Amino acid sequence: MTNTGLDVFDTTVQETNEWLRDISRQLGDENRRHAYLALRGTLHAVRDFLPVDESAHLSAQLPMLVRGFYFEGWDPSTTPAQERSREAFLRRVENALEDALRNEDRAFDFETAARAALRVLSERISQGEFAQVRHMMPEDIRELWPDAAVSQSSRG
């Protein structure tokens, strides 16, 4: 565990590492950088598809470190995005990953990355927030998220 001398920082680093570990497992790829990029790109797509108020509600459930990169580069005046199709959502994830992974040999399936990040997100936020955020997405994007029953059963 990281020891910064501040519990709040140590806790957020630990929680973020747990999120990345879970995404890595979903991807079948132990590269934490890939998990981070999948989470970051997917969260940016989710954020950009939500109304500003709902985006803020979701952010309150994220570890502090994840919340920081969730808001990175955000322009609330452009949300929710005009084009709200599944293709536009996945294109946002793809663009984020493609830019960051340009010089790597490994091919990345962007839909798999989005599904992995959405599954971990759904397991780590409250059931109520999960249902609300998922409901605000267009139906074809909701299909990328695990359904409520799967998410609830994985919470234990």
Describe the structure concisely for a colleague.
With 156 residues, the chain is an all-alpha fold. Helices cover 68% and strands 0% of the residues.
Structure, described:
The chain is mainly α. The chain has a single domain (about 5-155), classed as Orthogonal Bundle (Globin-like), CATH 1.10.490.110. Helix content is about 70%, strand content about 0%. The chain contains 9 helices and no strands. It has helices at about 5-25, 30-50, 50-60, 65-70, 85-100, 110-125, 125-135, 140, 150-155. Helix 1 crosses helix 6. The longest helix is centred in the first third of the chain and has 21 residues, at about 5-25. The radius of gyration is 15 Å and the shape is globular. The two termini are about 25 Å apart. Mean pLDDT is about 90; it is low at about 150-155.
Which features characterize this protein?
156 residues, single chain, 68% helix
Structural class designation: mainly alpha
Given the C-alpha coordinates, what overall shape results? globular
Q: Mean pLDDT, as a whole number?
A: 89
Number of strands: 0
Extract low-pLDDT stretches: 149-153
